[in-house]
Design a protein that fits this description.
The complex is a heterodimer of chains A (198) and B (343).
Chain A lengths: L1 E4 L7 H12 L2 E6 L2 H14 L2 E8 L2 E7 L22 E5 L9 H17 L6 E4 L14 H9 L3 E5 H6 L10 E3 L1 H10 L2 E3 L2
Parallel strand pairs in A: 1-2, 5-6, 5-9, 6-7, 7-8
Antiparallel strand pairs in A: 2-4, 3-4
Helix pairs in contact in A: 3-4
Chain B lengths: L21 H9 L9 E3 L8 E4 L5 E10 L5 H18 L3 E11 L5 H17 L3 E9 L4 E10 L14 E5 L5 H9 L5 H11 L4 H7 L6 E4 L4 H9 L4 E5 L10 H6 L5 H10 L3 E3 L4 H8 L7 E6 H14 L4 E8 L5 E3 L1
Parallel strand pairs in B: 4-5, 9-13, 10-13
Antiparallel strand pairs in B: 1-2, 2-3, 3-6, 4-6, 7-11, 7-12, 8-11, 9-12
Helix pairs in contact in B: 2-3, 4-5, 6-11, 7-9
Classes of the chains: A alpha/beta (198), B alpha+beta (343).
C-alpha cells in the first residue's frame, strides 16, 4: 500500500497529499500527527465516498487508510479501535462506581480522582468500558462527566454496556460516549495488550 | 522551522486560524478571579473581545488588542490585514478609534526590511482609520507576528455588546465568508489570483464604514466575525432561549471559496470550530461545502448585526451604500431544537 507521510504538515496539506496519491493508487495510508488532520481526512472520505479507517497509535501518531473502493480493498468502512502492532493498546474497564473495597464515600472520591488522573495523562487508552455499577458514571450528573467528556474529545472511545444502563433505568440519561454490547466488550478486552481496572 | 517560503515572502501559518479553540479558552477564563468595579462596563466575564471602562457620564474607553502570525506571504498585505482586524473590535462595539500601538514579534535573523513592509501596511490602515499611532513594542521571536493594541471611545449609553440579540431580530452580515479557505487554498496553489485578490480586498476593508452606519440605527447587538467563524460568533450572540435561522443561499461567499471547500481545502481551525459547535447546529441544507464555509475562521471578517425587524430594511439599504455585500442572512426566533438551524 502506498504510504503518504503527512506528519508535520498543517491542514489542508495532508488532504492535498492524500488526494494526489489517490489519483494513482486505489488504497493509501496517510500518516498524520494530530487528531484534527484525521477528521479532515475523514471528511474527504465522506465527500468523495471513499472507505476510511483511522488507527490511533498515540496522541501524536495516526494512520488514516483511504480506499477509493474501486478494487478488492481490505478496508472496511469503519473506524477500528485496535492499533496493528501495539504496545499502546490499553483498555480501561470500570465495573463499579467506586474504586476499591472498603468505605463507600472514600471509594467514590477515589474513582473521581482516578478518572481525573486518567484525563491528565499524555498517554490515552484506546477505549474505556463501563459496565454494571460503572454504567452510573457515564450518565447525567455523574461526578466524572466533565473529565470523561475531555477524554472523549481526545479521541478515546467511551463505551457503556447497554444492558447495564437498561437495568439501572439510565438508558435515556447517557451523557457521554456510546452504548456497546457484550460481544464488543469481549472483543475489546481480549485484543487489548493491557486491561486496566481502577 | 522554515520562515521564508520559496517566493521570498513570509511563511504562512496563521491569521485568525491561529486562535486558540473556544472550548479550551472558556474553561481557563472561568477559573480566573473576576474584577468587580462599577466603572468596568464590559469586562472579560462577557465574551466581547474588547473591554469598556467608564471615565465619565459622557465618555467610556474601549480597549482591545489583536495580533497573529502570517496568513499571506506578502508582508505589506499581512500588515494591512492584521491592522484592519485589530481595529475591528472597536467598530463592532459602535465606538470611535482614538489611538493604536504596534505589537511586533520578528525573527532576529530575518531581513529587517520585511518588518518595514509589515509596519508600512499597518500604518496605512491606521491612517485610514484616522487613529493616532502612539508607539509599540517589539521582540525577537521564531516567527513573525503583528497586530495592534487599540484604544477607542464611546458614549457609555451607546455600547453595542455582542450578546444582546432579541427574538424577532433580523441578522445582517457585512462581508462575504470564506477568506480562511481562500488564503489557505492560495498558499498551496489551489485557487486563482482573482479569488485571492477578492479575499485580500475583503480582509483589508475597515469595518469603520459599516459601523458608522449602524450607530445611527436601533441595533440590538453586533460582533465582528473572526476566528470562531460565522457560526461560532453567531452562537456567542444568541441568548439562552434563542435560536438563529439562517438561509444559506443568502450568505455572501468569496468567489471560489465554495469550490475550494468542496475539495476539502479547509483549515484545522475550521474543524476545531466544527467540533466545538457540532451539537448546537442543525444543517437542513445538505451541502457539505456550505457547512465548511460557515465554520471557516475568518481573518478580519465583517460585522454580524442583530436588528429589530422593523428597522432592518432601512439599515440594509444604508449599509449597501458603503458595502455592497451587506446582506440579510437570517433571523432570531424562540429556542428551537438547535441553537442555529441552517436551511
Amino acid at each position: 500500500m502506498k504510504q503518504v507521510d503527512a506528519r508535520g504538515l498543517t491542514c489542508p496539506k495532508p488532504v492535498i497529499e492524500a488526494k494526489k496519491a489517490l489519483k494513482e493508487n486505489n488504497c493509501i495510508e496517510v500518516l498524520v500527527d494530530n487528531q484534527i488532520a484525521t477528521e479532515n481526512l475523514k471528511k474527504l472520505a465522506e465527500v468523495k465516498q471513499y472507505k476510511v479507517n483511522v488507527i490511533k497509535e498515540s496522541n501524536q501518531s495516526f494512520k488514516v487508510i483511504l480506499s477509493t473502493g474501486s478494487s478488492n480493498s481490505p478496508v472496511q468502512n469503519n473506524v477500528i479501535l485496535e492499533p496493528n502492532k501495539s504496545n499502546t493498546n490499553v483498555v480501561v474497564a470500570v465495573d463499579t462506581e467506586v474504586m476499591g473495597q472498603g468505605n463507600q464515600q472514600l471509594g467514590e472520591s477515589l474513582m473521581k480522582s482516578f478518572i481525573y488522573a486518567l484525563a491528565e495523562q499524555d498517554f490515552q487508552p484506546t477505549c474505556i468500558l463501563f459496565y454494571n455499577g460503572g454504567a452510573k458514571l457515564t450518565v447525567e450528573n455523574s461526578p466524572v462527566l466533565e473529565d470523561l467528556k475531555g477524554i472523549s474529545e481526545r479521541g478515546v472511545s467511551i463505551l457503556t454496556c447497554g444492558a447495564c444502563l437498561d437495568f439501572y433505568g439510565l438508558t435515556e440519561r447517557l451523557a457521554v460516549g456510546e452504548i456497546t454490547n457484550m460481544y464488543r466488550i469481549v472483543e475489546l478486552m481480549s485484543t487489548a495488550h493491557h486491561v486496566v481496572k481502577p | 522551522m522554515e520562515k521564508i517560503n520559496e517566493f521570498g515572502g513570509l511563511f504562512i501559518c496563521g491569521g485568525c486560524n491561529a486562535k486558540i479553540g473556544p472550548g479550551n479558552l472558556s474553561k481557563l477564563l472561568n477559573g480566573l478571579p473576576q474584577t468587580n468595579d462599577d466603572r468596568l462596563l464590559v469586562g472579560f466575564d462577557s465574551t466581547d473581545d474588547a473591554g469598556v471602562i467608564k471615565l465619565s457620564d459622557d465618555v467610556a474607553l474601549i480597549q482591545t488588542l489583536d495580533f497573529f502570525p502570517t496568513m499571506v506571504s506578502d508582508p505589506y498585505l499581512f500588515g494591512k490585514i492584521a491592522a484592519t482586524n485589530a481595529l475591528s473590535d472597536v467598530y463592532a462595539m459602535g465606538g470611535k478609534v482614538l489611538s493604536a500601538m504596534n505589537i511586533v514579534c520578528f525573527p532576529e535573523e530575518m531581513d529587517i526590511n520585511i518588518l518595514g513592509e509589515i509596519l508600512r501596511g499597518g500604518s496605512e490602515v491606521i491612517q485610514e482609520a484616522k487613529a493616532l499611532l502612539v508607539g509599540g513594542h517589539s521582540i525577537h521571536d521564531s516567527t513573525p507576528k503583528y497586530g495592534l493594541s487599540v484604544t477607542g471611545t464611546i458614549h457609555p449609553d451607546n455600547i453595542l455588546t455582542n450578546n444582546n440579540c432579541q427574538v424577532g431580530d433580523i441578522l445582517i452580515l457585512t462581508k462575504a465568508i470564506g477568506v480562511g479557505i481562500i488564503t489557505t487554498a492560495y498558499s498551496v496553489g489551489e485557487t486563482t489570483d482573482e479569488n485571492f485578490a477578492e479575499a485580500i480586498s475583503s480582509m483589508t476593508t475597515l469595518n469603520k464604514y459599516a459601523s458608522e452606519v449602524i450607530v445611527k440605527h436601533k441595533v440590538s447587538s453586533c460582533t465582528d466575525v473572526t476566528g470562531f467563524g460565522l457560526l461560532g460568533h453567531l452562537s456567542e450572540m444568541l441568548g439562552e432561549n434563542q435560536t438563529a435561522y439562517l438561509t444559506s443561499r443568502d450568505i455572501p461567499v468569496i468567489s471560489g471559496a465554495y469550490e475550494c471547500a468542496q475539495e476539502l481545502l479547509v483549515t484545522a481551525g475550521g474543524q476545531r470550530n466544527r467540533n466545538f459547535l457540532n451539537d448546537k447546529v442543525l444543517f437542513k441544507c445538505d451541502d457539505f461545502a456550505i457547512e465548511e464555509l460557515m465554520f471557516d475562521p475568518q481573518t478580519s471578517g465583517g460585522l454580524l448585526i442583530s436588528v429589530p425587524a422593523e428597522y432592518a430594511k432601512k439599515l440594509v439599504d444604508e449599509l449597501q451604500q458603503v458595502d455592497q455585500l451587506a446582506s440579510v442572512i437570517g433571523k432570531v426566533v424562540e429556542l428551537d431544537t438547535h441553537k442555529i438551524i441552517i436551511e
